[in-house]
Amino acid sequence: EVQLVESGGGSVQAGGSLRLSCVVSGYNYRKSCMAWSRQIPGKERERVATIDSDGPTTYADSVKERFTISQENAKDPVYLSMNSLKPEDTGMYYCAADFFHPCRYEYTYWGRGTQVAVSS
Hints:
Order of helices and strands: EEEEEEEEEEE
Structural class: mainly beta
Shape: globular
Distance between the termini: 41 Å
Number of strands: 11
Mean pLDDT: 96
Helix content: under 10%
Strand content: over 45%
Radius of gyration: 14 Å
C-alpha cells in the first residue's frame, strides 16, 4: 500500500518560515519522482516544487528563491522548506509521488494535505 502523509503546516506571520514533511511508505522502487503542490482558495491548484531522486529540482516562479524541496534518497521523507512566507502562500499543501522514472512530471499518488496559514 502506497501512502503519503504530510505534516508541518501551521500558522505563521508574514516573513516567517515553516518546513513541511512528507513521509512515504509502500514504495518498491529505488528511484522516485516527488512533488509539492498547493491549493490556494479561489485559485487553480499550483505545482510548487518537484524533485527527482537523481537530483534535479524545479520550482514555480512564485516560490523561487524562497522555498526549497529536498530528499536525501528515494524512499526518504521529502521536505519543503519555506522562508519569507507571504499571506498569498496560504492554502493546503499536498505531497505527490510517481513510480515512473525518468520523471514524467505527472503524479499518481497524493497525500491528504497540510494547512499553511500566513497572516499579514
